[in-house]
Structure formats: C-alpha cells, structure tokens
Write a structure and sequence with these properties.
Order of helices and strands: EHHEHHHEHEEHHHEHEEHH
Shape: elongated
Pfam family, one: CoA_transf_3
Largest sheet: 3 strands, parallel
GO molecular function, one term: catalytic activity
Distance between the termini: 28 Å
Structural class: alpha/beta
Length: 297
C-alpha cells in the first residue's frame, strides 16, 4: 500500500499504518510519503516540490552569480527523485518479503530525499569540517556558453581536454595562462562561431560538448532518434501522445504493451472482485457512491 497524504489526513481516513497493519497482514509492504517529516515544526504542513526546493538548498544552488537572485529548477525534480526512491525501496522490500515472508514499513520524506540528492557535489564545500581552503564549487561549471546563433554546453576537465581546447578553436597555445584565462579566451572565440561550427571543432578534438536543443526539436534530434528514445503511443482519452521509452531496456520488454495511468475508478470493479466481493455486492457499493467507477470511452 502506498499513500502520500499528510499524517493527520491519513489517520482521519484510517489509512495510516496503525490502522492498516494487522496481525493478519504481516506480508504488507506499507509506504508513506510525506513532505517535510512526521515530527518537527513543519510536520503536517502542505508541501509541493517548489517549496521543498527552497528549503533544501536547491534554490540557493541556482543563485545567479551576477544578480545574487536564487531560482528554482523549473520542473518537479524532487517529486521525481522521491518517486525513484519509492520504487527502489519497494523493490527491496518485495525482495525481502520473497525471502522471509515478512513485509516492511517504508517512510519517505521529500525533504530528506532532496538533501540526499544535494550531496556530495552540490555540498562539496559544506561537508568536511576540516576544510579551511574550499575549492570553487562544482556548481560554477554548470553554465552555458553563448555562440553566434545560440548556446552550447561544454566541459573541460582532464589535462588532454585543456590542451586540446585552444587548437580546437584556432587560438594561440596556452602557455602559462591559467585555466580560467584559457576558458575566458575560448568563450570569447565561441561567441563568434555558429553553433554547428563550434560543436564540430570541439568534437574533432574530443572535447565533451552539445548544443542547447529547443523543447519542440527534441523529437528530431539525431541521437535521440537513433536511440529510439521517444515513441508515439495511443492514449485512450488523449489520442496520440509522445512519450519517452522507459529505462532501462531489458530483453523481452514489451514496449508496445505499456498501458497509461488508469482513469479514476477504471479498475474499481476488478479490484472489488479480486478482493472477494460478489458482483451484487460491488454493484451495491457503486450505486451507493461508496466506490467510484469510470465508464470506458
């Protein structure tokens, strides 16, 4: 069982673990997902990905170096990370149950997931108490480089990559110039080059790089096409939709057999039947409004 209600709401609905777990349900894997935590000053507060980003350091990490204004990552990164943690935890609990016959209690807090996600790279200068001379944070490397007609991302890390940067762009040898000076000269040169030319020059010298691809152009990006990473599926309500193929790829995986998320109440009758309710009993619950069903479209 998985629920993501606030603790007080779960208790009121009697779907909290104390209400659900009984001696007869020792195989139950119970998963609760909360926002800030079950105790403490913020326990029970309403929460979304946006506010957890602010509290966990995500927004501070996105602070613009020039304006000093923090910012949010513009998608539900913590929601998604929490989902991955839940799936991995449930898989581990099911393996334990298969071996022991005993279920598990899993408690996941979005704030704690966010903090775990921040370590180690985002908190490299806020981890070891003994560090007196912090290095430039890794966050400083996450910036784009303007070109004459767009932007690219490039990362120069190893000695061979630094040595190749200037020849790739037709600049004078590095000499005694520091890495920041070399990168500044490279950025000035790249600002004069079309994106395609810049990518070709850097790639020819094995320097990791990529152009910024617009959202409406992702489906035509050659590598994404080669990976067959995006597919068009038929949705029973929305019609044709484009979706990424689930990862990882495994032999025998039936991609075409994937089903969309069920409509509200789509499987109510089936679940009642599996739970032992007769057709008449299920119909009575549906007619009384206790259980909702959705009609096929």
């Amino acid at each position: 069982m998985i629920q993501a209600y606030r603790p007080q709401a779960a208790a009121k609905l009697k779907i909290d673990e104390a209400s659900v777990r009984t001696a007869e349900r020792e195989r139950l894997v119970y998963v609760e997902i909360v926002g800030f935590g079950k105790t403490g000053p913020l326990a029970g507060r309403a929460v979304y990905d946006h506010v957890v980003q602010a509290l966990s350091g995500f927004a501070a990490l996105q602070t613009d170096a020039a304006t000093k204004v923090p910012s949010l990552i513009r998608q539900g990164v913590i929601d998604k990370a929490t989902g991955h943690v839940a799936a991995q935890s449930i898989t581990a609990a099911l393996l334990r149950r298969a071996r022991t016959g005993i279920g598990q209690s899993i408690s996941i807090t979005m704030l704690d997931v966010a903090l775990n996600f921040m370590w180690p790279d985002a908190m490299m200068n806020n981890t070891a108490f003994s560090v007196a001379d912090p290095r430039p944070p890794a966050a400083n490397t996450y910036r784009l480089t303007p070109t004459a007609d767009g932007h690219i991302s490039l990362m120069v890390l190893t000695d061979p990559q630094w040595a190749a940067l200037h020849p790739a762009l037709g600049l004078e040898p590095r000499g005694d110039r520091t890495h920041p000076e070399v990168l500044r000269e490279a950025r000035e040169r790249l600002a004069q080059m079309p994106t395609g030319e810049a990518i070709a020059a850097l790639t020819a010298h094995d320097i990791p790089c990529a152009p910024v691809v617009a959202l409406d152009q992702l489906a035509e990006q050659p590598q994404i096409v080669a990976n067959n990473a995006l597919r068009v599926f038929e949705h029973p309500v929305l019609g044709p939709i484009r979706q990424p193929v689930p990862m990882p790829h495994m032999p025998g995986m039936d991609i075409d057999g994937l089903r969309p998320a069920p409509r509200l109440g789509e499987h109510s009758a089936q679940i009642l039947a599996e739970a032992g309710y007769s057709a008449a009993e299920a119909a009575s619950l549906i007619d009384a409004g206790v259980v909702a069903v959705s009609l096929p479209r």
